[in-house]
């Protein structure tokens, strides 16, 4: 009995001590540029808060599944993801509203980043533009419809519909072809008719970069975050400014419901959105700032989606429309394009 | 070897328990999801899967490519194995080493090499343009041809190894004997070599066919999302749609296809003898 008592006291002491030190923030982030992100954001934050930051990475589906599976007892405090993935989980009630009074940097954000999915569930922390990268010595791109032109037959790649860039491309291509509805049926059918002339539907920008450097593909829509893969190459690549404009998207930061770590989570979100951190991240070309007060040199701006004019000009796809239509798009795509 | 079966069974027990606990049980759990609809046992998932045109296309493509790769590797494999067993001592070891060598290189590296070889500026297109067979480069990447070539190169060594070991057991004098008795080479192959090496063919055929069905990297890199195979479709269902039920259905279909191929080949081999 004595032994048992001693043991339980010891356990109580250990867990008590652990509780006292237990200032840990668990975040779920993209694995892209992890070492640099850690050095620019997560490590400095540990010093600011005097806490441990535990980083979880993986692709969006894995990370979303983990958050959903642990909804009753959240293991993640703060997560970053695309606005439409965030909205999908928001509809399942997995997030809690942010207390804007605890995020002073919020006031400095671009208007569209302040409350992207409603009810202050999320804040945007980075933008990206999407347009067409092309070989300026071989073709001229003035419109999204040029993607299906005779000139590009057998030399063009499109992003796969399952990725983030796919639906954006469908929207812009549809607009250029005169189709305006969000079912994208006519646009998908048009792609289906030209499927044999499209080299592939790529899944990752690294995959596309290889195909373009190997001269297999001479034009393809891609996110601006991948531009550095092309701008530094020996071949003459150019970023198109189509007459219909550029599209783009936003990544957002969120806090899981009832995670019990709200103070630290707000502190972290504010830190990431602050001018200091957003500038540092922008200068490392890791992400394009959502904080409107960030000022970077022209050379840095060239690699990013930077500036109020550009960001306000982007035609974005409503996150709700993506979630509501995604299954139907995929169904039609599978039937008309890859079948 | 043992005085009673018990000792033998006791020795096999640790491996059997390990396999049951860490392989059969988890796989059983995973695949059982594919036989449930709303928590009730049902085959509905399979019917829904089977009626979708895309799934039909992908299934038939996988079957077709698996069959073609196995057939082609058997044809090339017999020729290679025949010449290898006819080599003497050191040269046999060296040539056999060359056959095994690709197996020591990662499939990712081998498959990426094909991107360079089959691309518009690769050696295949250079040769086609150089010989004047075409005015413009031919698109081979992201077609069934590319996947076929990649899979063939990936699994041919397995067929050759199986056939070499089968042919090594072939009595040295049966071929000269058949020739002396007036058989032509086709008859020698069909009436002598084939029946005596059928076990090697069954083994190699199963390895190549199942390998082709279940390969992921090669179809993913050389076929992309335009030439979907069952494996790449499975990956898409899990990783894009988080749809473990469809993934379980595809996995079950792949397992059934692999077992059926083995049984079928064995049956054919038996019928011939």
Features:
heterodimer; A: 339 residues; alpha/beta; D-Maltodextrin-Binding Protein, domain 2; 2 domains; 9-stranded mixed beta sheet; 14 helices; 42% helix; B: 273 residues; mainly alpha; MetI-like fold; two-stranded antiparallel sheet; 13 helices; 76% helix; globular
Task: Provide a descriptive summary of the structure in words.
The complex is a heterodimer of chains A (339) and B (273). By secondary structure, chain A is an alpha/beta fold. Chain A has 2 domains: 2-125 and 250-306, D-Maltodextrin-Binding Protein, domain 2 (3-Layer(aba) Sandwich), CATH 3.40.190; 128-248 and 318-336, D-Maltodextrin-Binding Protein, domain 2 (3-Layer(aba) Sandwich), CATH 3.40.190.10. Helix content of chain A is 42%, strand content 17%. Chain A has helices at residues 2-21, 34-49, 60-69, 83-91, 111-114, 165-177, 185-193, 205-213, 227-231, 262-273, 275-283, 298-301, 308-313, 319-336, and strands spanning 24-28, 52-56, 78-82, 122-135, 156-159, 198-202, 219-223, 237-239, 247-255, 288-289, 315-316. In chain A, the strands form 2 sheets. In chain A, strands 1, 2, 3, 4, 7, 8, 9, 10 and 11 form a 9-stranded mixed beta sheet that branches. A two-stranded parallel sheet of chain A has the order 5-6. The termini of chain A are far apart. Residues 9-21 of chain A have low confidence and may be disordered. The model of chain B has no long low-confidence stretch (mean pLDDT 91). Chain B has a two-stranded antiparallel sheet. Chain B has a single domain, classed as MetI-like (MetI-like fold). By secondary structure, chain B is an all-alpha fold. Chain B has 13 helices and 2 strands; from the N terminus they run αββαααααααααααα. At the A-B interface, helix 3, strand 6 and helix 14 of A face helix 3 and helix 12 of B.
